[in-house]
Every structure is written in structure tokens, then in C-alpha cells.
Write a structure and sequence with these properties.
The protein is mainly alpha-helical. The chain is built from 28 helices and nine strands. Helix 10 packs antiparallel against helix 19.
Length: 582
């Protein structure tokens, strides 16, 4: 599906990098930095001391963006270097260094091993229709050339993407095991796994996963481990060996004395059974409420004392969901469809594949025996209702619950084994009617990445819209001042300043702001300047929430169309305009 949607194998190296939009391009750029470094430690140092992501500041991108999957990928190859450190290998590697091969030892090691074992990992074909745009002074001319384009696991971008797809395949195996273990039946594993595939998702209205469209996102790496953790917790809960749970040596004895004292009062008729139950329940309730209140209270107190504001936007987003509160940051989030409430069509799609009805029946049946997974599923569904993007967690949880319909332990008293198996087979068949149609629709997706305007753009840009900046950093290695990782309070403040270019402020005031950030060029995406995706979500509308002083002025980007001063326009096409700070 990834290949069908982008025609990834037949794209040039630049086009492949451009196809990694927004955050994906940011993550892949750091992977390239690690791999192309002479040594593993050099690559690690480069991403831990990066001064081109939030220029002129130096930040630890490893920690900020959770680049541990990329580091692990690079480290695995370093282990191969140690294990296979033969004379021939070392000689080949050092020759590569002397020749200036820039992919780092790890990838060269992989290439050497596959070549030695005659494993076919790369195919090259000649592209006769590639048009390369060359900029000479003010002259733009198109040159028809022939070029050789590599594809296969021997190509860096392919290796990165395939590693993610293999991890997702491993996740499906663990997902099957989770459903099989919970239901105690192969049919349970089949129901859960088929439900997952039947609700796999569409390019714009994803249900279970986005890995086939946006592989480098953090969820593609993290969700397989979440499934593994759910499986481990399930095994732990079911385990009869619970001795490790005694976390304190004397805590159980202290609690035992309290309980014995209460039971003593009950046996002496000094308190009633109702009062005993109320006291015990009250103790548990006080512990629970104290834990929740203490956790929340400590979090806000520490954040207030230390001035930590990185997570403040989460509270603001939740506040905007249930009140009329809006500000610049929350508007950027809530105007995006993935942060809106769950779309009304989502339950209808789940009903058509019978996942939602099956999950509801299973939840009622397992309310006691599988209470942990019931609570987990309800929590994920509640999160998905509030923020649509979190359907990625809610829908798979419903698939897990649906698998319990195949459990003999739960339904042994309802019908005999043969009737139960017949029901399960009929359920799978009924699911498959709409499910196979969904899969066919995804497999029939045909497309090809093509964005010549952005290919023209990647020349000299330092500030602009967050998604565009990620692409600029990946393809040009130029310093940028803002990027799509909006969770950090510092980058929110930077982006707020950069986005003044879309406000109604005078161009001179915007120039002063950008100049103070040491910006030399700014890019304006005309869609951001003119587009209004839905009422109140245009960039000018968002700025009007807080910039009441200039509400009667035209937007800055419109003003620059008529008179670019104090900026200087240095590049322009149908989608992008680049202005240089004089």
C-alpha cells in the first residue's frame, strides 16, 4: 500500500525524502545524520548537540524527539562490526572511509555482507523522463537528463522503511497471541487479527494504524511494544506466582492488624456488618482518591515551582474541548481534523465490520473475568472520542475485546461447543463481507508522489510553516528555527513568532521579530495565507483571537504581495514564496 500510494521505488532520492512530510522528514533527517557519520559515537554526538534544528540554539534532539529507534537501528550495525571484524571486512571498510563513502560503517557493513553472500538487495533502473530544475542567477531552465535510481534493501531509505514494516509485522504476531491467550482459542486470535485488518484504515480516515502511509512516526515504533506490554501484563495477572507483588516487607502485616481489629469489633457486636463494609470501602476509597489527587497535585506543584510548561498545551486542549476557551496554540491543534472529536462515520464503519457489536457483547460477558482489559479498552475508546487521532489505540482495543467471543470459558453455559464454533465461523464470514471490501479499497489505491513546487523550493530557507521546515532540513541540511514537534514550550514560542508572517501585523514589525531570531529567509505557503479549511481556522482568524489591535489591517502575507519591503522576494512559484530579510 505504501508503494502503491507513492510509487516509492521509482522516485529519485530527493523525491523520496520530500515524500516524508512534516514530522516524518524531521525524524528521517536525524537518521541520515547518524548513519552518515564516520562512527556511531560521532553520529550520537551530532544529534545530541544539534544547532540546525532550532537555530541558533543547540538542543539534544535525541531526548527531545525520542530518536532512540533510529539510534538502535544504527547500533545494531555497530554490533555487526564487532562480531564480523575480520581482516577483509576491516580493509574494505577503511577503504570506504578513504574514498569518502558517507553512509557510515554500519550501512557499508550491511552492504558488504549482502554482497559477499550474493544477496540481491538493490536494483537500479534508468529514468528517461526526469526533469531537473537548475537555478542560475535569475534564470530557471529545465534540463532533460538520464539517471540511475537504486531501489531495494541496499538503499538507505528502503532499509529504514522496511525495518518499520517488519516491526509492524511482528506486532501483528503479538496481537494474535494476545487475542489467542485471552480467548483460549485459535478462533479468538483469528477474530482479533482479522478485525484489525478489516479496519486497517484509509489514507485520510485511518482506523487501526497509519504505518502504511506514515511509517517514520513515533507510533509506528511504540505501538508494537505497547501490544507486547499488554500481553506481558495479561500473563502476569493470570500468573499464580504472585510472591513478587509484596513490595514492602512489613506493609501487609500493618494492614492485617487494622483489618483484624475491625473484625474484632464486628465479632464483639460493637459495629454492624454494614459499618464494617463501609469502613473497609472507605479505606480503599481514601487510598484511591489520595493517590489520584496526590499525583495531579504534585505534578502541577512541581511544574509551577520549576516553571515547566511543556505539557501546558495538553490542559489547554482538553479545556478547549469542553468550554469556549481558545488561544493560538489550541487553535493550531483543534483545527487539525485528527485532533477533532471522533467523526460520526467512525462508529458506522466499525458496525459494518461487526467489530463494535462484537466488542460490546464481549465486554458485557467479560465484565468480571477480564476486568483489566475492559477498563483498558474503555479508556482508549474515551480518548479516541475526545481526540480522533487516538483511534489508533481505541479501535485495536475493540478488536481484542471482540476476540473474546470465541472463548469457551465465557460461553460454555450458553451453548455447546459445536454451536459455539458455528457461531464464530458465521461471525468471521459476516465480518469478511465489508472487511474484504475495505482491504480491496486500500490495495487498489494508486498514486505517485509529485511535488515539483517543493523541489524548486529547497534552496535557501530558514523559517516558515512547520511541515515545510521539516522537509527543508531533511533535503537541504540548512538551519531552521521551527519544526513540527510542537510539544515543547520553547518551539511553541518560536513558532508563534514565525507565524506572525500570517498575522495582520505590519511587515516592518514582522521583520523585526524574524531578524531578532537571526532568520535570513522566510517561506510563505500560499495555502496557509489564503486557505480557510473550516470557519475560524484560517491563520488570520487564529491570530485575530489575540491580536485585536490590528484586526482591521490586511494580513502581512497579502501586504507583501503588493510591496515586499522591508523584505526582498527571492523565489516564487504557485505554492511557495521566499522572502529574504534585507
Amino acid at each position: 500500500m505504501f508503494e502503491n500510494e507513492r510509487f516509492f521505488s521509482h522516485l529519485s532520492a530527493l523525491e523520496r525524502e520530500l515524500s516524508f512530510r512534516t514530522e516524518m522528514g524531521l525524524y528521517y533527517s536525524y537518521y541520515k545524520t547518524i548513519v552518515e557519520a564516520p562512527t556511531f559515537l560521532d553520529g550520537l554526538h551530532a544529534i545530541m548537540n544539534c544547532n540546525v534544528t532550532e537555530f541558533p540554539d543547540t538542543i539534544n534532539t535525541l531526548k527531545r524527539f525520542n530518536l532512540y529507534p533510529e539510534v538502535c537501528n544504527r547500533y545494531v550495525y555497530n554490533v555487526i562490526k564487532t562480531v564480523l571484524n575480520s581482516t577483509a571486512v576491516s580493509k574494505w571498510a577503511w577503504q570506504g572511509e578513504a574514498l569518502g563513502v558517507g553512509w557510515g560503517f554500519s550501512f557499508r557493513m550491511y552492504d558488504w555482507i549482502t554482497t559477499s553472500m550474493k544477496i540481491h538487495t538493490k536494483t537500479c533502473y534508468t529514468d528517461h523522463s526526469c526533469v531537473v530544475l537548475i537555478k542560475l542567477s535569475c534564470l530557471h531552465s529545465a534540463l532533460q537528463i538520464y539517471k540511475s535510481i537504486p531501489l531495494g534493501m541496499g538503499e538507505l531509505s528502503f532499509f529504514y522503511v522496511y525495518a518499520i514494516f517488519y516491526l509492524s509485522g511482528l506486532m501483528i504476531s503479538m496481537f494474535f497471541l494476545l487475542c489467542f491467550y485471552l480467548s483460549g482459542s485459535i478462533f479468538g486470535g483469528l477474530i482479533g487479527t482479522l478485525s484489525y485488518f478489516y479496519n486497517h484504515g484509509e489514507a485520510l480516515a485511518f482506523e487501526c494504524t497509519r504505518v502504511m502511509w506514515t511509517p517514520p512516526l513515533r507510533e509506528s515504533f511504540s505501538y508494537p511494544f505497547l501490544v507486547f506490554q499488554l500481553l506481558a501484563v495479561t500473563l502476569t495477572i493470570k500468573s499464580s506466582n504472585a510472591g513478587w507483588r509484596h513490595l514492602s516487607l512489613f506493609a501487609q502485616f500493618a494492614l492485617l492488624t487494622q483489618t483484624c481489629a475491625l473484625f474484632g469489633l464486628y465479632f464483639l457486636r460493637l459495629i454492624t456488618s454494614h459499618k464494617l463494609c463501609m469502613i473497609l470501602f472507605g479505606m480503599l476509597a481514601i487510598q484511591g482518591v489520595s493517590f489520584v489527587a496526590g499525583t495531579v497535585g504534585i505534578k502541577f506543584t512541581v511544574a509551577k515551582l520549576l516553571g515547566i510548561a511543556d505539557d501546558a498545551h495538553i490542559t489547554s486542549i482538553l479545556r478547549s474541548k469542553f468550554t469556549d476557551f481558545r488561544n493560538f496554540d489550541t487553535s493550531l491543534y483543534t483545527c487539525a481534523p485528527e485532533f477533532d472529536f471522533l467523526d460520526p462515520e467512525a462508529p458506522q464503519k466499525l458496525i459494518k465490520t461487526l467489530v463494535l457489536p462484537s466488542a460490546i457483547v464481549a465486554m458485557i460477558a467479560v465484565i468480571a473475568k477480564h476486568f483489566y482489559h475492559l477498563l483498558q479498552a474503555l479508556a482508549f475508546v474515551a480518548m479516541a472520542i475526545i481526540i480522533m487521532r487516538l483511534k489508533l489505540f481505541g479501535t485495536p482495543s475493540l478488536c481484542v475485546m471482540a476476540s473474546l467471543l470465541a472463548s469457551r470459558k465465557l460461553f460454555a453455559s450458553v451453548c455447546d461447543k459445536r454451536k459455539h464454533q458455528a457461531f464464530v465461523i458465521l461471525l468471521i464470514a459476516a465480518m469478511s463481507v465489508q472487511g474484504i471490501a475495505n482491504l480491496k479499497g486500500q490495495f487498489d489505491t494508486k498514486g505517485e508522489y509529485n511535488n515539483p513546487e517543493q523541489e524548486e523550493l529547497v534552496g535557501s530557507v530558514f523559517a516558515g510553516a512547520m511541515p515545510t521546515m521539516a522537509t527543508v532540513k531533511l533535503c537541504t541540511r540548512r538551519a531552521i528555527v521551527n519544526h513540527p514537534h510542537y510539544e515543547d514550550v520553547g518551539i511553541r514560542e518560536r513558532t508563534h513568532k514565525v507565524y506572525e508572517i500570517f498575522s495582520r501585523k505590519p511587515p516592518a514589525a514582522v521583520w523585526e521579530t524574524l531578524n531578532s531570531m537571526k532568520v535570513t529567509h522566510v517561506v510563505i505557503d500560499t495555502q496557509w495565507c489564503l486557505g480557510r479549511p473550516k470557519p475560524g481556522c484560517g491563520m488570520v482568524d487564529i491570530w485575530d483571537l489575540e491580536d485585536k489591535e490590528n484586526i482591521d489591517r490586511p494580513s502581512c502575507c497579502h501586504a507583501l504581495e503588493k510591496d515586499a519591503r522591508p523584505f526582498k522576494r527571492v523565489f516564487s512559484n504557485q505554492k511557495y514564496k521566499v522572502y529574504k530579510l534585507r
